[in-house]
Amino acid sequence: MSLKTVEWKDNSVIMIDQTKLPNILEYVTYTDYNQVAEAIRTLVVRGAPAIGVSGAFGLALASLQSDATEKNDLISYMENAKKILFETRPTAVNLAWGLDKIMEVANEASSVEEIKKNVVAHAKKMAEEDIQINMTMGKNGSQLFNDNDTIMTHCNAGALATVGYGTALGVIRATKDSGKNIKVIATETRPIQQGSRLTAFELKHDGIDVSLIPDTAVGYSMANGLVDKIIVGADRILRTGHVYNKIGTYQVATMANQHEIPFYVAAPLSTFDMKSNPEDVIIEQRKGSEVTGIGDKKTAPDGINVINPAFDMTPPELIAGIITEKGVAKAPFEESIKKLFQAN
């Protein structure tokens, strides 16, 4: 089994601390929802599916932390916890999805004891389902890749971005498991280096052939025929097929279009936002220090202005297909995405 990013054990949330990778594989244990919120904010845990489940686990912890004796008081305590957890990463739609699901379960219960029991059980079920969904998505996507393909990926959409197995890397794993020989090119993914620290780490950990490139070598790799196909994950996908993913994805997709290389996205249905329009989506802006240094080493002058968006938007016309657990959506996306939800 590949790495397990987040799990519930003995009324605690256990996570891999992804800020320590690739140097140390360290697990942290949380018993307070505020600690989980901080872990999401500081990228101890990241990746849309993983933070969706982490948010659900955080709310389950909140239900256990509360000393409320009446249902309404516990719901109110959990609503406050939900707000704190949601504000940590506003762009990834899975977080809101995970929190909303747990609040639904809490509201349906009739007593304080029932709320606590049901929300813990439901959060654990969500974690188990995440792995199953990723494996199904992997199978669906593996049919799009050929023997001896070299596949480029950006950021980390692997086991570390989910509870386990992964979305984009889940498709890569399933392709390899189907007996095809594949190689992977991972972009380093500045400024947090999710590609070099996480994707390269987990693919190497699982014995998959991976080469690392600087973000600036994407065009070079494609122009020199080193890439057959591309697959990335997503933090939010609109009903129109607009994809929000790690900053730099739009550049990779544009370059792929220029070189006529198929560009695929892999994400579960929980990543789809069927209500918002592109102008409604808030792009998270992160602190400038992520760009002005690496660790303790300064790489820019003091007092420099920094623009540091965490995500960008890739328009549907650049996307060959969106791989989900219910099948692959292709253009026209509005129709094919709607069909996937009807099949759900």
Keywords:
344 residues; Four Helix Bundle (Hemerythrin (Met), subunit A); seven-stranded mixed β-sheet; four-stranded mixed β-sheet; 16 strands; isomerase; EC 5.3.1.23
Got a strand count? 16
Regions with little confidence, pLDDT below 50 for 5+ residues: none
CATH topology title of the largest domain: Rossmann fold
Task: Determine the mean pLDDT.
Answer: 96
- State the fourth-level CATH superfamily of the largest domain: Translation initiation factor eif-2b, domain 2
CATH architecture of the largest domain: 3-Layer(aba) Sandwich
Number of helices: 11
Catalytic activity: 5-(methylsulfanyl)-alpha-D-ribose 1-phosphate = 5-(methylsulfanyl)-D-ribulose 1-phosphate
Function: Catalyzes the interconversion of methylthioribose-1-phosphate (MTR-1-P) into methylthioribulose-1-phosphate (MTRu-1-P).
GO molecular function: S-methyl-5-thioribose-1-phosphate isomerase activity
Protein name: Putative methylthioribose-1-phosphate isomerase
